[in-house]
Structure to design on (236 residues):
């Protein structure tokens, strides 16, 4: 809770994964992947309820083992390849409301961002609350600036992003950011009314690129394991 505002953390983790089978509970440095996000929420000073939304009984058991609440198995209609995260969040909010558990804010923590810490969670909450806005999203600076990128049309180069300047020295290019998928923090009322995480009033929470690795394939997983080992966080 923050200033009498109750905060729900939702960790979406369906069983199906095309790239890595059962990716959300694969072993990363001695712990299942999803455990890192559960721990980030459980260690937070402000999170009141940590929920894993899954359609998979094995993921449910892992979630419970690591201290999350798993009060339902997610319906198949929002567990397929085309299911949207916003629908998963709304389903969880509605389910808890029927159980007489209501919250002011909801934080979406994707399990594929294991390097996001409880400090990031708390800092993001404090940032949003102090600004008085409805939503916050985490980003990191891009490595390759779109100003120097081109498409090809009719065998001619066309800029992706216009930039007015005398040269294209990297040090003088405008900073550009990308969603890193680690944190989406919203007022519950915004989620239910607008059915979106990000709008024109959303404020940023900037994260380091090293903490922004999103596990999509086995190479990403090995990189995360290497970073955790360098940080002394490997259990094996």
């Amino acid at each position: 809770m923050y200033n009498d505002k109750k905060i729900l953390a939702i960790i979406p983790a369906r069983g199906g994964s095309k790239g890595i089978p059962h990716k959300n509970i694969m072993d990363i440095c001695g712990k299942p992947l999803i455990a890192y996000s559960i721990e980030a929420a459980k260690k937070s000073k402000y999170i009141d309820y940590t929920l894993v939304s899954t359609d998979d009984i094995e993921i449910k058991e892992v979630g419970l083992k690591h201290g999350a609440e798993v009060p339902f198995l997610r319906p198949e209609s929002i567990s397929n390849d085309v299911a949207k995260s916003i629908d998963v969040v709304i389903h969880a909010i509605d389910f808890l409301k029927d159980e007489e558990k209501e919250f002011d804010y909801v934080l979406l923590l994707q399990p594929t961002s294991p390097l996001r810490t409880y400090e990031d969670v708390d800092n993001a909450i404090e940032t949003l609350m102090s600004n008085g806005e409805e939503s916050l999203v985490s980003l990191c600076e891009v490595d390759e600036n779109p100003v120097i990128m081109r498409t090809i049309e009719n065998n001619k180069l066309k800029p992706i992003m216009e930039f007015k300047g005398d040269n294209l020295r990297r040090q003088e290019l405008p900073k550009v950011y990308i969603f890193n998928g680690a944190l989406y923090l919203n007022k519950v009322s915004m989620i239910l009314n607008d059915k979106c995480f990000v709008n024109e009033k959303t404020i940023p929470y900037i994260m380091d690129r090293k903490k922004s690795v999103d596990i999509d394939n086995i190479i990403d997983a090995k990189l995360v394991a290497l970073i955790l080992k360098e940080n002394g966080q490997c259990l094996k």
User: Anything to note?
Assistant: The chain has one domain: 7-140+176-228. The radius of gyration is 19 Å. The beta strands are 7-12, 27-28, 31-32, 49-53, 105-108, 135-141, 150-153, 156-159, 177-187, 203-206.
